Amino acid sequence: MNKMTNLLGMTALLLATHMVSANPLTPQILVSNQQSPLAKTVTEAAMSYANFWNTGDAKFARKALLEDFQDMTPPEGREAGIAGVLAASSQFRQAVPNLHVEVEHLLVSDNYATIRYRFKGNFTGKMGEKQGAGQVVDFPAVDIYEVHQGKITKNWHLEDYYTFFSQIH
Q1: What is the enclosing helix (H) or strand (E) of 5?
Q2: Which helix or strand (DSSP H or E) is residue 137 part of?
Q3: Which range marks the domain in which residue 8 is found?
């Protein structure tokens, strides 16, 4: 019963927090080992960052990320910090202008959040020399965030680029 109460409390909190966002996201599954101010703060940071990937709106990235946060698994050549994330989103949206994400699963434990995403859209733009023809894009990704004082300080991420590239070629 305690787990259900915690789950319901965190879900209600999450819904109330994100109802004011222009494009609110809610996880399909939310699991937290605690109902506390820390769990609320970690959840808010994770969902702000998810809203950034869903909308491309830099205000969500700036709200979620420490200015000099560490990307622990950066792609080769990516600029560090928020600037690198903003550039990555912008470049990806040039290829998939209608990009949106779903949060399939959010797991919060102490200062960490693990989030399972589903990136969706259509490849109608351009990536490198390849011009899209409307191909459906639908691939998973998993991120792990370390959060302190309401900001993501470190991010580990893994995107299923094999699936993505097989869909656009």
Answers
A1: helix 2-18
A2: strand 135-148
A3: 2-168
> Is residue 13's pLDDT more than 50?
no
List Cβ neighbours of 111 (8 Å cut-off, separation of 6 or more): 38, 42, 146, 147, 148
Here the CATH number for the domain that contains residue 61 is 3.10.450.50
Residue 73: phi and psi, rounded to 5, are -135, 55
What is the tens place of the pLDDT at every residue in 23-56?
A: 578 898 888 877 899 999 999 999 999 999 999 9
Q: Which residue has the tokens 């698994």?
A: 73
Residue that has been written with the tokens 């809203």 in this structure: 51
How many distinct structural domains can be found in the chain? 1
| φ and ψ at residue 42, rounded to 5 degrees | -65, -45
pTM for the whole structure: 0.84
Res. 12: pLDDT tops 70: no
Q: Residues 160, 139: contact at Cβ < 8 Å?
A: yes
pLDDT of 70 over the 50 cut: yes
